[in-house]
Write a structure and sequence with these properties.
By secondary structure, the chain is mainly alpha-helical. It has a domain of 172 residues. It contains nine helices and two strands. Strands 1-2 form a two-stranded antiparallel sheet.
Length: 266
């Protein structure tokens, strides 16, 4: 009986973690995921829970809005380089309104006008250009990413507000608050991840599918072929093989910047 139970568990695990050619570095990524999970359990999650419990809602909303204003700012060139004039103009209007009467982005007046929030970034832009995602990466102290999506993070490091914050202690405080806010927004997803037979595979596949969904503005031509080594942009002939309706991956509010992403690393 024990052997049967053990065999069943092995078979279930095998079914839950099929070969994923987007993840050629899985042997390295899994230990990093375990490290991130341990760090989260003992530090990030308790801090995020305390942040939610004890920081007044108006202050948390201000932090959320500030991060969202940065999303809008970096979304402008990403939209323009995809020839999405309407999206670029709306993001520009949002930045102008929220950066002025919104006190540097702390108040989201634009959404009340309403000027709809857009969802563009450099990773999506390169995907729309036909550039494959590249290998899936689990980054220490951060979470899931792909080589293509790393362009957005590098752009923010190069041209983000951190250059205007001095001294180093201020920069650490800035990143600490932003990270805590993102982690707090993901608290409702913790139970879902814990219920998974293989949390690592769940986080990976959710991240990849959601990024795929975003590249096509919510209307991908077919489900992400998880067993392929390249995106459909590099394999357009595969579209006919996938005619299953595509359901939208799990949502995370825009202020979390990457939906079940840094997001879903734990």
């Amino acid at each position: 009986m024990r052997r049967l139970i053990l065999l069943s568990a092995v078979l279930l695990t095998a079914c839950a973690t099929p070969q994923n050619n987007y993840d050629p570095l899985e042997a390295v990524n899994r230990p990093i995921y375990s490290f991130n999970s341990t760090l989260d359990e003992h530090l990030l999650r308790p801090v995020a829970q305390a942040y939610t419990d004890y920081i007044p809602s108006p202050l948390r909303t201000a932090v959320y809005n500030f991060a969202g204003n940065l999303d809008d700012l970096f979304g402008i060139p990403a939209a323009l380089l995809q020839a999405k004039g309407v999206a670029a103009s709306k993001s520009t209007a949002r930045v102008i309104v929220n950066s002025t009467v919104g006190l540097g982005g702390l108040i989201d007046w634009a959404s009340d006008l309403p000027i709809e929030k857009q969802d563009e970034d450099f990773g999506q832009m390169f995907g729309a250009w036909g550039i494959p995602s590249g290998p899936y990466l689990m980054i220490p102290f951060y979470g899931p990413l792909t080589v293509r999506d790393s362009t957005e993070k590098l752009a923010r490091l190069a041209w983000g507000p951190i250059d205007y914050i001095d001294p180093l202690g201020g920069q650490i405080a800035y990143y600490g608050v932003m990270l805590t806010d993102v982690r707090a927004q993901l608290l409702p997803f913790d139970a879902t991840i814990r219920e998974q037979l293989d949390p690592y595979a769940f986080v990976r596949d959710t991240y990849l599918q959601r990024r795929w969904y975003k590249v096509y503005d919510g209307n991908p031509p077919y489900p992400l072929p998880m067993g392929d080594s390249q995106d459909d942009a590099a394999n357009p002939d595969r579209a006919a093989e996938f005619d299953t309706p595509v359901a939208e991956p799990p949502q995370v509010e825009a202020g979390a910047t990457e939906t079940l992403s840094t997001e879903v690393q734990q």
